[in-house]
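## retry 2 of 3
previous attempt timed out at serialization; input unchanged, resubmitting
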Amino acid sequence: MSAATTVRAPAGRSRRTVPFPVAAVYGAAGALTAAGLASALWYGLAQPRIALAFGVLIAVGELARWGALPGEREPAPLGAAGALGYALLGENAGQGTSHGVLQTVAVVVTATLAGAVPHVVRGAGPALDHLVRRVLTVAFAAVCFQPLYHSGELRAHIGSGPGYALLLILLLALTALCDAVLAALVLRARTRHPFGPLLRDELRALLHIGSAVCATGAVIALGVAVAGLWALPVFCVPLLLTQLSFRRYAAVRATYRQTIASLARATEIAGYTRHGHARRVADLSRAVGRELGLSGPELTVLEYAALMHDIGQLSLVDPVPEGATALLPVAEQRRIALLGGAVVRQTGVPAAVAMVVERQADPYREQPLSARIVRAVNAYDDLTGGSAPASGPLSALERLRLGTGRDYQPEVVESLARVLSRGCSVPGGTG
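## retry succeeded, writing output
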């Protein structure tokens, strides 16, 4: 097994300290939750039958998280849609509702926690970030809608026709934007990756399951206003089917990624590269790509290319010692890269992946950014190997900096240094 090499964070910086933006977001959600629960306990629930119906819907939505894959942006879309529908509910079968913002928060939090109990028992409870974001976004939607609706201004100026539906859609769009900003802000504070690409990835994710959640939330609010609580099970079926289809698609993507990872391990199994080399290069390349602002699809191409960057070594008669291609002459590096690209093109992965593999040994000024990242990170892992002249992280980074005239882009090398300096545990010792 390979040893783990860790470049420690600068002295005086605790890796366990909660960043201020995260603490502020958690504090706001905690204050809202405490106020909502205290109000419900002190004053009781207004229209408890409605609160119970939506609470059951949200809890069922949380229970439907069974089978959620790691990394899903919204693992409980039905619960999220039910929470948004309750926040934007103005009428029930033509009769006005009277629940306020604090009761909305209390019902959503209680139902979410109740639905999460089975998952917690089996050790797969919802992430705290997920619950915090739901509290804040639901509160945002309720604050925007309920005071305006209960004051009578909304009915007086818009009525209950198409304008009312358009208003709900607009409020849900603003709520989705608020959720995306919160998610990107928390992730930025935790990882210190650039905020812009993180926000772009969150907004892109809204076009998938996020749009279905918002649409269902609006339909629930409009349906209950006309048909009453019996509309809840009717209008939830489409989202459940959408969730099932999305899970199947995500499972196919996960299997695809696992297949590529297994193919990448062929060089390790054959003894051409050190154990874990492809995975180390892929993980560190993805971190550097995020640091440099690559989007989600670009990061996927980068990860696939990094996993398969050494596959050209399978065509060599004499293996490279420990697979350290960074120590070979440039002409030999380029020959192996072209062989690898030819193999990758036969696997059915996107052509962009093969192009990165083929061009990873070119002078960096002629490379796309993904190839520059793969080349620098591969060299770093090779240079921290046991038989490499530079066997430590600092020595390896110094060698990369000396090669920035032709081989390695300075910005990529410095980004790699920043990623390592944050204390990322990067396996890289001897094979």
